[in-house]
Amino acid sequence: MNTAIAIADRSPLALAREVVGLFKLRIGVLITVTALVGFVATPGHAASGLQVLVLALATLIASASAGMFNQYWEHDTDRLMARTRGRAFVTGALPHHPAWLLLMALMLTGSIGAAWLWVNPLAASFVFLGAFFYAVVYTVWLKRRSWMNIVIGGLSGSFAVLAGGAASDPSLGPLPWSFALILFLWTPPHFWSLAIAGQADYAAAGVPMLPVVVGSERAARVVLWSTWALVLSSLLPAFFGAGWIYLVGAIGGGAYFIHRAQRLARLPNRQTAIRSFLASLVQLCAVLGAACLDVALR
Fold this sequence. Notes:
The protein is mostly helical. The protein has 2 domains: 11-128 and 163-170, Tetracycline Repressor, domain 2 (Orthogonal Bundle), CATH 1.10.357; 173-298, Four Helix Bundle (Hemerythrin (Met), subunit A) (Up-down Bundle). The chain contains 16 helices and no strands. It has helices at residues 3-8, 12-21, 25-41, 49-73, 75-78, 88-91, 99-118, 121-142, 149-153, 155-168, 174-197, 199-205, 210-214, 216-233, 244-266, 270-296. The chain is globular, with a radius of gyration of 20 Å. 48% of the residues are buried. The mean pLDDT is 93.
């Protein structure tokens, strides 16, 4: 069936859902939360309520534009993977047309411009870098070329934390930098756990994720080592002003992630990989939640 006819036959609500699905909102919301935690955890809080709202929306919209570009760029390899072959550009639910690039550019330009005008230029720069590293550095330059793709691409989350920190205090003391390090070290064990579970998909698509390059067993050991590095780094904020509530959350979430990563290293299969992946989310939520609670209860 002709794509234009297929689109015309769909209800406006169905089309809206397909468009929203391009934005990768689950990732966008997580990135936005990290920016807000960076703001809350950084001493200063010089921004007004309006500025914080602009920061959140700018981060979300910039992330959405990067997520859309990711799906636009990868539509050819997405059709080779079970996890992604239902995406709108793959199925033809939405046309793979260059006009989408204009929408992405407008979203990114508008979000960066708003952050620049209503927050501050440094925060806006970090919002831009977060989107740039995901859309260009990770998606275009590295994903199909190097197993380091997710390591360097993981800087997207770090830049979001720094955007929030810059909104609170543009001088950026050691606390927001320590949280940026945590986000940087969190991404590899989080994503490599998922990649072990979906190793066959990535191999079929020719994407050199770490398990495809070195095998599941070795990749699982790397997940364990990188999880230890992450958990140790998550203790750093306690040396730069975070209190005991934060420390309890970081230790609790980290211990659970290490436990699941150890299970994965002993028995690398899809089940243990998914559990390690979910444990990474628990660990991050514990760190971010404890950071906010720690500030709120001081």
